[in-house]
Each structure stands twice: as C-alpha cells, then as structure tokens.
Amino acid sequence: MVKQNNTIIKIEHLSKSFAEKVVLDDINLDIRRGEFVTLLGPSGCGKTTLLRMIAGFLQPDSGVIIMEGNDISDVPPHRRPLNTVFQRYALFPHLNVYDNIAFGLKLNKVPADEIEKRVRKALKMVSMTYYEDRDVNSLSGGQQQRVAIARAIVNRPKVLLLDEPLAALDLKMRKDMQMELKEMHNTLGITFIYVTHDQEEALTLSDTVVVMSDGKIQQIGSPIDIYNEPVNSFVADFIGESNILNGRMLKDREVEFIGHTFECVDEGFGEDCAVDVVIRPEDIYIIANAENAKFTGTVKSCIFKGVHYEMFVETDKGYEMMIQDYNAFDVGSTVGMFIKPSDIHVMQKERVCNTFEGKMISDTTVEIMGSQFECLPCGAKEGDDVIVRVDFNKVELLDNKEDGIVMGEIEFILYKGNHYHLTVLTDEGEKVYVDTNDIWDKGDFVGISVSSKDLRITKRV
Amino acid sequence: MKKFFAQTYLWLLLALLYAPIIIIAVFSFTEAKVLGNWTGFSTKLYTSLFSGGVRHSLLDAIENTFTIALIAAAVSTILGSIAAIGIHNMRGRKRQAITFLNNIPMLNPDIITGISLFLLFVSLGVTQGYMTVVLAHIAFCTPYVVLSVMPRLQQMNPNIYEAALDLGATPFQTLRKVIIPEIRPGMISGFILAFTLSIDDFAVTIFTIGNQGLETLSTFIYADARKGGLTPELRPLSTIIFVTVLLLLIIINVRARRAARKQENI
Amino acid sequence: MKFNIFTRRSSWALPYALFLGFFVALPLILIVIFAFTDNQGVFSLQNFVKFVTQPEAVNTFIYSIGIALVTTFLCILLGYPAAYILSNRNLNRSQTTVMLFILPMWINILVRTLATVALFDFAHIPLGEGALIFGMVYNFLPFMIYPIYNTLQKMDHSLIEAAEDLGAKPSTVFWKVTVPLSMPGITSGIMMVFMPTISTFAIAELLTMNNIKLFGTTIQENINNGMWNYGAALSLIMLVIIGITSLFSDSEEQSQNEGGII
Questions:
Q1: How is domain A7-234 classified at the CATH fold level?
Q2: Strand runs labelled E in A340-454
Q3: Are A44 and A18 in contact (CB under 8 A)?
Q4: Closest to C237 in 3D by CA, of B118, B207, B121, B115
Q5: Domain of C206?
Q6: Closest CB from A56, A83, A94 relative to B167
Q7: Is C86 on the interface with B (CB under 8 A)?
Q8: Which of A53, A74, A78, A80 has the highest number of chain C CBs within 10 A, making it the mutation to test binding with C?
Q9: Range B217-249 burial, b when 16+ CB lie within 10 A, else e
C-alpha cells in the first residue's frame, strides 16, 4: 500500500449487513487530512453505521478501513486515534464537567498539571470556562454538547467523528453551534467526519458532502457541486427543493421537457435519449407579461416563506412547477416563465423501465419476484431463464395488498411535475418502480399486479 | 364522612396487623412465663437470651445467619450485576431463556426451591451444611439483584459505554470507571434486598442445612417453637428481628425516595 | 479472532447462565426424575399410585386446597377495600400508611406466625382451625393488598371520569370500570396468597398445636423421613396445582409486582 500523504482515512469495499439486511454496500471513500466531510442521507441510509465502523464500535463484514497507511479494521475503539461526539452527548453522569473532559487524559497517564492546562484550554474553546465543577446533569442540552465536544478534542485526536451532534438542539442553538463548529474546525486543523440528515447543515459546514442512500454512496462533492450538479434524481430531491421532470435530450445542447424545447449546456447524451431534468425553484424566472415568455402557466398557490414566495404554477402543457421568487403573483393569474440554459441540469436516467430476472414456469406463466405472473406466449419454453421488462406506467398498484400478485410497501415518492414516480419495496426485498397519477403515502402497503400483455420477455443468455 | 369511614377501616386493619407484634414486643419486657401476665418491667429475657449457658447455640445461630446473609448477598450482588450487564446486551431467544430461568426462583414456592436443591445436593452426595445453605441462598437471592440492577442499565445512555472506549478506556476500565458507578445504587439496593431475604428465609434453609447441628435464627426459632409454642425467650428474639428488618426496609425506602426525587429534579 | 465488543458483553451473563442451569433448572429436573422413579432409581409410577390410594394424603391435599381457597377469599374481601382506599387520592394521601401495609411482607414468616399465637394466647382463645385461618389471612393479607394497590394506582383516572361523564352511578362505575380494570392485580394477588398458603409447612403446626396438617407439611415430613421419591412426587403435584393457578395470572405481571416491592 502506497502511503498517500494527503489521505488520512481510506475506506475500501466496506460492506455490512444486519440480519440479511444490507446496511452498507461496497463503500469506497477517501478522506483528506484536515477536511470537513459530511455523511448526509435520510435515516436508515447507513451513514451512522459507517461512522460507527470508523470509530470501531462495529466490525465490517468485508472491506478495510485504512488510517495513515495502516489497516485499522481490527483495532479496538480504545486504541484508535480518533474521538467521537455522540448525538445524545453520552456524558458520564457520575462525573462533573472537569472529570468528564479529563477522562481520556487520565487514562493516558498525562501528568496532572498538563491535564489541568489542557482541560481549561478545551473549556475555553467551547466557551464553557468556569463550568468545570458543575454536575453535568444540571447543564442544558447545548452546554452538555459543548462539554462532549471538549471531552473529545482535549485528547487531540487526528480525526473527530460527530454523530448528528446538533440534532437534539433547538433551531436557534443549532445555528449558533454550526458556526462554532466551523470555527473550531479551522482552529484545530484536524479532520472532522460529520453525520447528519439535515441537508442545509451539510451544505453550510462541509468541505465535502457524501450523499448516501440505501447503503450506497450516491454522490461525493463540494456543497456547490452537489447542489448544482446532482448526479441523479435522489440527490436532486434530497438536497434542497427541486422540480424533477422527465425529459428527452434531442441532441447536444437541446433538451425537451414539460412539452417545450430548451437550450441547455449538456452534451454527450446522444440523440433522442430519455433523461431526468432538474430545475431549482429559484432558477425559474417568473414575469407578469406572458406574451414574451418561453412558456406560460397559471398560478395555483402562493405562500410567503419569510424571504421569498413559494408558488405552484400549472404550465400551459399541464405540468406543475414549484417556483421561488421575491415577488408575489396573484393566484389564478397567467404568468410567463424563463429558464437559463445553465440552470437546466440534465441527468442520465438510472433506468427507463423495470427489469426482473425470471424463469418460465409454462408457456404462459413466468416467475418473477418470487411469484407467478401470467404472460403471453413469447417463444420461451418452460424452465428457460428470462429477462422481464415492465414499463413504469404499466405496473398497477392496488389498495388491498392481498389483491395483488406481489405485496409491497411504498418506500420513496418523487413528484415529476405531472405524475408520481414511486419506489415500491416488495416483501422479497425487490424494488419495483411505478409511474402513477394516484396519490399514495410513504409506508402504504399495496398489492402489485401487471397485466399479461405488459410483460416484455426476452431469453437470458 | 366517606373519608372518615375509609380511614377508620384502614387503621382497624393496621391495628389487627400490628397488634400481635406489639403484644410480643411489650411482653418481651417482662419476665412472666405466660403471655398476658405482666409481672413488672424487666430486661431479663433480653439478657438471658445472650448470657445463659443454654443460649450459646442462639449466639451461634445469630452469627451464622448474619455471615450466611453477608456472603450470600455479596456473591449474589457480584454475580447478579455482571449477569445483568450481560442480559442487558443480549437479544432475542437467549435473552428470553435466561430471563425465564431468572424468574423461576422468584415465582416458585420456597418449599419447591428448598426440596429441589435438597435433591440436587443429595444426588451429588454433598454433605449438607454451611456451604449448601450459602449456595441455596445465592440461588434465590441473585434473581432479585438482577431485577434491581436492570432498571439502572436500562436508564443508562447506551452510548456511555462506547464513549469510554472511544476515549481510550479498555473494556475492563470502562466497567470499573463508568458502568459500575452508574449501576451502583441498583447494586446496593440489590445487596440489601438479598441480605434481608437471606436473613428472613426459613423454608429453603431448613432443607439445605443438613443434620450436622448447624443452626440459623429461623431454624432456631422453629426448633424452639415446635417444642413449646411461643416460649418466653422467643419474645425478645422476635422483637429484635422485627426491629432489624424494619430498619433495613426504612433504609431501602429512604434511598428509593431520594433517588426518585433526584430523578425528578433532573 | 476478530475483536467484537458486543459478543463480549452479552457473554458476561454466561457464568450466571451456568449457575442458573445448575442450581435452578437441574434441581427442578431432579424433582421430576425422583417423582417418576422408585428408591432404586428405576422408572415407576408407584409414588403417584401411593398418593391416590392413601386416603390420608388425599384428604390433606383437599383440605389444604380448601384452606387456601378460604384464605384467598378472605384476603380479597378484606384486602380489596384496603387497596382501593389506599390508592384513592380522595380517601388517603399518606404514603406512610401504604408503607405500613407493605412492611409485614418482609418479616420472617415464623415470627409473624408466632405473633398470631401470641394474639390468641393474649385473648385466651384456644388454638385450632380458627387460629389457622386467622394466621394465614394475617400472614398473607399484605400480599393481596400490594398487587391490587399497584394496579389501581397505575389505573388511568380519566377512565373513571369518562364513565361518570357517560352517566354511570358511582356503584356502576365501581363494578363496571374499577373492578374489571383491577383484575390483573387481583389475579396476581390470588397467586401470591393461594400459592404460599398451600405450600407452607410448619405454620399450620404452630397455629394448631400440631392438630392440623397441611399439604406442605406432608411433603416436608416425607422428605425428612427419607421418602425422597414420594416427597418429590408430592412436590410435583403441588407444582402442577400452582401451574394451573398461574394460568389465570400473567406471570410477567406477577414478577413485576414482586420486583416492585422494594
């Protein structure tokens, strides 16, 4: 292994499952010395598991964690040169503030006078001077978190791990602490690995944001990159507000969506290729004069959001768009809209239809997702391995989950301007993607069915 | 009015519950052979309890009772606290199984616990005596220690253990410096509880004490009472036991209330 | 071997698990083994045959169940009102009174029994069946009051207000709401009274000058006289009776109640 001077932690092919459920799936990540890295994602995406593995509280099933050139995967947590700030502080209730902070130093047999100097310095750094004799239970949440931070940094770790440290604080306190953490990072110059589900916090604090979902890294990049150039519809939806729409790349620098053709800056998708288009609500220019606009629409709602107004506009071709603007427009009025070419973000579609691996049971029956579906004769014989494709809008969802051929739970909902794109997790753990106009809620249990003519079957080679 | 009747009922019932003990306590301060005859105040029954030549066995019995209770309570507290930490970190079937086994000595009638242990010792060919009584007491006291330590563990922030490891403490140092200080109140309550249960026990002791002449307070009282009912010397003895248990219980309760108040303040 | 703190900590229960296996599970298995063998260690049902064919043992058994039922009934009769009053904030606010009712649970059963003897001596009433039942009620009344008090205490008071709001008379509220909701407490109270009453030994002798014997005493005498197999069989019969009783009570609830005594 060549030691890379700039990289302090290198994670290679890290995977972890809990009771069959994959929590981390082949994670690869390089963290540079002195960097402020945020692991960002919804709950259950694996970000906390990854952090706990770096801390040593969990063992990976496979893969390695390399710190400064040494594999530390098997090193117990108390011998790793990093410290953690826990979400619920985890201060020792039987020790006062001073003894909590001195805990690590005493274990390392640091001389008493040096302990005292370092504890005072740490307390000063978190603005908690004069609190050393206080009982930790008598402190407010914010103060407890400051003590927890001091307790970690006093040991001069090479890397500081922070597990949603501000999640339990109220909004005002959170904002203040964000600024202090940022300052602390600059002063200490050590690496921070920060876990959060709050995208705004991630964008505010980080040098690098790692967006995670379903145990996989979706995108790694600077906050600006992540915001402006999301690589897929998940990231676009998770980071900030956005309009995510189906589109077609007609040729280089020309894309069609919401029934209009727009000039854009993207190239290399080929001709007539299905894509996802992301438009941030603040990037749509809205004017009262509809005549000279690129496209028009009717204002459906308008809500004041503190700094800007948030409006939903139904376009001339029947798509719903979210728009943020400093000016309010009357509900029911006709408005005109523009989008700058550089504000149109075009993304490769992850998939254009559902694809299942299956097996023919008879000439007119195919087994996919662990259940048997009727199909039209297609030339494949009994026992043949086949690939079955189903268009998103051909999957039927049924209210009564027993009525479907397969049962599932709605896991993720994406609004695409004129329809919903749902991710449904079946009982067997497969994912089915569905386009529908019906309104479902996340967590709904549904029956899944596909009519025989909509199964497109090809033999597998 | 309703309250008056209610309170009258409570106090009548309490009077009934405490009258016998008070009668014993009062008549322990007189020399009369027959209970109910007052022949003047005297502490003779108390002094003769500890001084008379025949009473040597009583002092032995008291000593045995207390040393057995101390050993059993100490071992139960250590065994039960470590077990509680283990059980707290167990999941699923294994945890259910051990919790079920742990409940058995608390749910079983004492006579069954006593006979089952008696059969164990005779099957193993062990001579019954001091050791077997201690082991039997550990067996029925430890579940109560586990039960009084568990809530402390459940209240503990689960990240505290990890925080200590993270700061460089070995698992053993973490146990000593973080976990034990956290569960100490539960351990102390468990110890006092085990001690009280051990002192009080009669049914399990009588089956495991063997016939080597070993006596505890309970078996001493039993042997004495079987011979002549409530003999005069049992009066001061009962009074002493009653007062001792009363004091222990008051300590436990004051501790519990103080802890509850502290919890409220946080 | 890979380092894993989780397997390590859960394995801390291992010594105690072994201890439980050896000092709790194995002894109970031994009762079953002894019950189904003769004194040569050969499988046999003779112990049970002996029990069924011996009128004396069967009579003691039935008499003991009778005494236990009477005791349990009297304990409910006396204990329920007490528990109700103790838990009702309008009728009683003193924690000390509650403490006074729970305290006797922790006093040596022999001392409590001797206290009954003292009371009868003091009042010059001869010992006998009356003393036996009085002594049992006296011994076990706190064990009935405590679990009922506990459930009544935890009961959501707004349920009673809701019933009143819906137009129920106070007596209807009591019989249709309070009593049904306190059933878990009553059942565990029954367990905590019925079970020790049929299983005690030595108590009956002291209360009746050796005139009346209960089933517990029969078991103890057999064990003492070296009839281990027969004694084990009688113990097993008692365990079955207790097992049947406990079907009416939720064991989870009971262990909670017992644990809560401290």
A1: Rossmann fold (3.40.50)
A2: 345-348, 354-362, 365-368, 371-374, 385-390, 395-398, 406-415, 420-426, 431-436, 445-450
A3: no
A4: B115
A5: 62-253
A6: A83
A7: yes
A8: A74
A9: bbbbbbebbeeebbebbbbbbbbbbbeebeebb
Q: Tell me whether domains A7-234 and A241-348 share a fold.
A: no
**pLDDT, tens only, A170-196:** 888 889 899 999 999 999 999 999 999
Q: Domain ranges for chain A, please list them.
A: 7-234, 241-348, 354-459
* Res. C256: pLDDT tops 70: no
Q: Answer whether B178 sits within 8 Å of A83, measured CB to CB.
A: no
Q: Does domain A354-459 have CATH number 2.40.50.140?
A: yes
Q: Is B164's Cβ below 8 Å from some Cβ in A?
A: yes
Secondary structure letter of residue B150 according to DSSP: H
Could you say which of B3, B189, B202 has the minimum Cβ distance to residue C90? B3
Q: Name the residue with tokens 């499952």.
A: A17
Q: What is the pLDDT of residues B93-122, one digit of tens each?
A: 888 899 988 988 888 888 999 999 999 999
Element (H, E) at A310: strand A309-315
Partners of residue B182 in chain A, C-beta under 8 Å: 92-94
The CATH homologous superfamily for domain B60-231 is MetI-like (1.10.3720.10)
Domain total of chain C: 1
| Under 8 Å between Cβ of A54 and A195 | no
Instruction: Give pLDDT, residue C108.
Output: 79
Q: How far apart are the first and last CA of chain A?
A: 39
Average pLDDT value over all residues in chain A = 89
| C-chain residues near A59 (CB < 8 A) | 2-4
Contact, A324 vs A241, CB < 8 A? Answer: yes
CA atoms of A50 and A39, how far apart (whole Å)? 9
Does residue C6 sit within a domain? no
What percentage of chain C reaches a pLDDT higher than 70?
91
CA atoms within 13 A of residue A281's CA, in its CB half-sphere? 19
Task: Record the tokens describing residue A357, joined without a space.
Answer: 């691996």
Q: Domain map of chain B by residue range? A: 60-231, 232-266
What does the alpha-carbon distance between residue A429 and residue A439 come to, in Å, rounded to a whole number? 23
Angle between helix C215-224 and helix C55-87 axes, rounded to 10 deg: 130
H/E stretch holding A274: strand A273-279
- C-proximal residues of A, 39-58, CB under 8 Å: 57
CATH code at position C211? 1.10.3720.10
Please report how many Cα atoms fall inside a 13 Å half-sphere around the Cα of residue B252, on the Cβ side: 24
Sign of the CA dihedral with A378 first, then A380, A382, and A386 last: negative
Nearest-by-CA chain A residue for B170: A78
Of B103, B246, B252, the CB nearest to C251: B103
- Classify domain A241-348 by CATH number: 2.40.50.140
How, if at all, do strands A36-40 and A191-196 pair?
Answer: parallel
Query: What type of residue is A400?
Result: N
Chain B: residue nearest A163 by CA? Answer: B159
From C4, which residue of chain A is nearest by alpha-carbon distance?
Answer: A59
Backbone angles phi, psi at B211, to 5 degrees: -125, 35
Distance CA A215, CA A42 (A): 11
Would the pTM of this model clear 0.90, i.e. be above it?
A: no
CB contact under 8 A, B103 and C246: no
Question: Which residues of chain C from 151 to 210 reach within 8 Å of chain B, CB to CB?
Answer: 195-196, 199-202, 205-206, 209
Secondary structure letter of residue C25 according to DSSP: I
ipTM: 0.83
Q: How far apart are CA C119 and CA C127, in angstroms?
A: 10
Q: Please provide residue C78's backbone torsions phi and psi, each rounded to the nearest 5 degrees.
A: -85, -35
Q: What is the pLDDT of residue A417?
A: 84
Residue B264, pLDDT score: 62
The two beta strands, A365-368 and A354-362, are antiparallel
